[in-house]
Amino acid sequence: GSKIQVAAVREEVKSLLAASNEKKRNFVETIELQIGLKNYDPQRDKRFSGTIKLPSIPRPKMSVAILGDAHDCDKAKGIDMPFRSAEDLKKLNKNKKLIKKLAASYDAFLASESMIKQIPRLLGPGLHKAGKFPTPVSHNDDLSARANEIRATIKFQLKKVLCLAVAVGNVAMTEDE
Fold first, then answer.
1. Rg (CA), the chain
2. In what helix (H) or strand (E) does residue 143 lie, and over which residues does it extend?
């Protein structure tokens, strides 16, 4: 069982928001939750990772691009969402540097269902290596809603250290969020 008292967390959040108010910065600070694990041996026990969808969006500025077919590229144009077509991806010629650059220029990717299978062929393992393999979308999906879903989802991964850190919010939110 976890020994964290809800009241203690609330107090912490209060003082954190107050401190952030005193020292105004030019950006919305992200709040990170750090979890220390006890009695867990990453050498022996299984490492784990996963994703959690939060009720509110911790990182509203996170950039999401779509690797789309003609239909989805048009939709993306309409909502000012960055996109790349199959042609654009072919132009990268499996050039590792260019693919890395593409992976680095956005925080996450969506891809049309018809494109998902082509991506490893067009780009090799680059996006996968960067941990940014695209989330599939169908033609009936609302792209901005799907992008917001990604913005609200946080990934956590246990590596060799016994501390798990995830972005859970930002200082522009209310205490309850």
1. 19
2. helix 143-152
